[in-house]
């Protein structure tokens, strides 16, 4: 968790260059882990290697929703040139920006949780082994989602102050835009080729997964 906090802090400084808002994206991480432990306690799941592995697997996802909410609020305030001293206007802007991304965040996190449904369907020894992992990952992701749409907007209204740097003023973002725009333009101009390539990758993944499953059955 400490390593994840350091990485998130460095990425935040690199892309937003706004030090006050670092707390907005770092506070939800330990709180989401705490919520996962609380849910584990109520569900009667012990803290063991497999249950903690669920939190470890989810650790990179726990900050995603908070970062999306914070970055969107930051851009709304910066692009509309909102005066940070006008706290009521900042509050209204954060509310609007959060409403814009609230539903996509919910569905993206729901998809991550639903991806573990096959694990819940396991029975026998496999079920006993992997159910704690699936439960703790679900608890952690659910807690992070709840925090992202409740606590994070409140923290944005309190900590988004000072100077806001435009996206174009960040040399790192300019490099990424320089690389990404031609790639995006190519994909949009060659839609059949792009979809065909994605379908080919999907078919290749199915082929490899089938081959690995057959090899495991022989063993």
Structural features, described:
- This protein is 79% helix and 0% strand.
- It contains 11 helices and no strands.
Question: How large is the count of helical segments?
Answer: 11
Taken in chain order, the helices and strands follow as: HHHHHHHHHHH
Principal-axis shape: globular
Strand segment tally: 0
Seen as an oligomer or otherwise, the chain set is single chain
Relative helix content: over 70%
Structural class: mainly alpha
Biggest sheet overview: none
Average of per-residue pLDDT values: 85
Task: Kindly provide the radius of gyration, computed on alpha-carbon positions and rounded to a whole number of angstroms.
Answer: 21 Å
Strand content: under 5%
Uncertain stretches of 5 or more adjacent residues: none
Ends: how far apart? 37 Å
SSE inventory with pairings:
Layout: H1 2-15, H2 22-26, H3 28-43, H4 49-58, H5 64-79, H6 87-114, H7 117-120, H8 124-148, H9 151-159, H10 171-189, H11 191-218
Helix pairs in contact: 3-8, 4-8, 5-6, 5-8, 6-8, 6-9
Describe the structure concisely.
The protein is an all-alpha fold. The chain contains eleven helices and no strands.
Keywords:
globular, mainly alpha, 219 residues
């Amino acid at each position: 968790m400490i390593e994840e906090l350091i990485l998130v802090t460095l990425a935040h400084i690199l892309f937003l260059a706004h030090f006050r808002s670092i707390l907005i994206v770092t506070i939800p991480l330990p709180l989401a882990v705490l919520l996962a432990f609380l849910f584990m306690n109520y569900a009667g799941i012990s803290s063991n290697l497999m249950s903690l592995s669920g939190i470890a697997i989810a650790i990179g996802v726990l900050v995603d929703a908070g970062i999306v909410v914070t970055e969107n609020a930051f851009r709304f305030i910066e692009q509309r040139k909102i005066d940070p001293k006008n706290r009521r206007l900042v509050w209204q802007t954060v509310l609007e920006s959060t409403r814009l991304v609230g539903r996509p965040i919910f569905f993206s996190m729901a998809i991550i949780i639903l991806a573990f449904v096959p694990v819940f369907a396991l029975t026998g020894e496999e079920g006993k082994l992997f159910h704690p992992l699936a439960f703790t990952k679900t608890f952690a992701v659910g807690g992070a989602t709840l925090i992202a749409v409740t606590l994070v907007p409140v923290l944005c209204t309190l900590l988004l102050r000072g100077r806001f740097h435009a996206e174009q003023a960040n040399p790192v973002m300019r490099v990424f835009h320089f690389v990404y725009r031609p790639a995006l333009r190519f994909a949009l101009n060659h839609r059949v080729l792009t979809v065909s390539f994605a379908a080919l990758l999907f078919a290749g993944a199915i082929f490899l997964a089938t081959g690995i499953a057959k090899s495991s059955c022989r063993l």
